Automatic annotation (TrEMBL):
Transmembrane regions: none
Protein name (record): O-fucosyltransferase family protein
Pfam families, alphabetized: O-FucT
Lineage, highest ranks first: Eukaryota, Viridiplantae, Streptophyta, Embryophyta, Tracheophyta
Keywords of the record: Carbohydrate metabolism, Fucose metabolism, Glycoprotein, Glycosyltransferase, Membrane, Signal-anchor, Transferase, Transmembrane, Transmembrane helix
GO CC aspect terms: cytoplasm; membrane
Membrane disposition: Single-pass type II membrane protein
GO molecular function: glycosyltransferase activity
Organism: Fragaria ananassa (Strawberry)
Location in the cell: Membrane
Length: 79
């Protein structure tokens, strides 16, 4: 069997991480639904209305009105 170069590279990375000790994996999603539900829309002026509409489209989502500037100032927005 021959593996694609990407698989060999991934295998090498995993091996190196195991050899060199503890590590942390952090996966951040920066997608429209995540932006809509977190309220972290600072700098998304053109899309802010669309993101707000997305929040209101889900009746189970409790927090509808979100002040993104206030949220960012309080440290609750990771961006």
């Amino acid at each position: 069997l021959r593996f694609l170069p990407q698989l060999r590279t991934g295998e090498k990375i995993v091996r190196l991480m195991r050899e060199r000790g503890p590590f942390l994996v952090l996966h951040l999603r920066y997608e429209m639904d995540m932006l809509a539900f977190s309220g972290c829309t600072e700098g998304c002026d053109d899309n802010e209305l669309r993101l707000t509409k997305m929040r209101y489209a889900y009746p189970w989502w409790k927090e509808k009105v979100i002040n993104s500037r206030k949220k960012r100032k309080s440290g609750k927005c990771p961006f």
